[in-house]
Amino acid sequence: MHLDVELIRQFLLAHAETIVTWLVAGLVMMLLARFELRRAVRRSAVAMSESVATTVAACVPDIAHAAQTGGGVGVPMLEPVEMQRAEALRRVALDTVGTVMARGRWLEDLGNLRLADDALLQGSGAGGADPLLVVAPQPVVQAYLTAQRSFDEYAAQLRDERREALRLQDGLQALAAEATHIEQETGSIVMRFEQVNAQAAQGVEAGDYQRFLIQKYNALGVREKEIAQERAQLQAQVQQCADRLAVHAQAASREYTHSLTPLMQQLRAAWGHGDSPGVFETWLRETPAQPSVHAA
Question: Which chain regions cross the lipid bilayer (predicted)?
């Protein structure tokens, strides 16, 4: 392939002005882009510096105040930190109140066998450490941990009782299913026995099969009576276990609620008596706890 040099030269001569114009325009655009890039970098650096300064001023108010007033390095840091700690305590205290009250209701729900276990898992309150433990003073933390230990003990006991009640219920359902199967099997034997009798009336010998059906029918009848007795006994056990679980769950909820009174007192004291929410005063007017769940 040969290039037509003369044709290329004529093309360049004919369009020289246009080509030069585009080259100049491209050079100008590159210079403008470089200028804009450098200006954007400078703006980004300034914005980052302002952001850092704002963050420092927000996180460390004393440093910002000293920088603005020209004060010395002897500005005390304790008071702003304590104010931030108190404000954090105010924010999480009411959340903690809601959490512990929900746990009391959850203990009572454990006694309701009609509630599925999946629904109970959502209200167990096992969501990790409470933020209150980070910002609260030691008396509040101690009162919270004491109430938490009480909750754990009640929850463990009620879970064991609930598992036992559910186990008995499963056994009762298994007996009911077996009784239904026996009823169906008995009906099938009766139909086959009638068919064999009809064939025997026509002269077909079926003595052994008839005896087999009779023996099976009698065995199913014996098992049906046994199941009826077992179901009656197990039904009484299930009812007794369910009633006991419900009573223990209600008592556990009441006692756990009562065990929260020291925590409410500490939260009210940490919050401030003058402007504390009414939930603390309402809680402290609760009646004394009922007899222990362990004694039931």
Answer: 12-33
pTM equals 0.57
What secondary structure letter does DSSP report for 111? T
- Per the listing, tokens 């114009």 go with 21
What is the rounded CA–CA span in Å between residue 146 and residue 77?
33
Token reading at 162: 């609930």
DSSP character for 288? P
Cβ–Cβ contacts within 10 Å for residue 79, how many? 11
Angle at Cα 118 formed by Cα 115 and Cα 120, nearest 5°?
Answer: 60
Query: What's CA 244's distance to the chain center, in Å?
Result: 28
**Rounded distance between C-alpha atoms, residue 63 and residue 59, angstroms:** 9
Q: What is the pLDDT of residue 233?
A: 92
Contact predicate 140/265, CB 8 Å: no
Residue 130 DSSP class: -
- The CB density around residue 151, as the number of other CB atoms within 10 Å, is 21
C-alpha to C-alpha distance for 168 and 36, rounded to whole angstroms: 78
Dmax (CA) for the chain in angstroms is 123
pLDDT per residue as tens digits for the range 24-83: 888 888 888 888 888 887 777 666 666 655 554 454 444 444 444 444 444 444 456 566
- Residues 271 and 277: their CA atoms lie apart, in Å, by 9
Structure tokens at 188: 């099938």
Q: What are phi and psi of 99, to 5 degrees?
A: -65, -50
- Written as one letter, the residue type at 220 is L
Radius of gyration of the CA atoms of the chain, in A: 42
Please compute the mean of the pLDDT values over residues 150-160 and round it to a whole number: 90
Distances (CA, A) of 39 to 26, 48, 60, 105, 151: 20, 14, 32, 62, 62
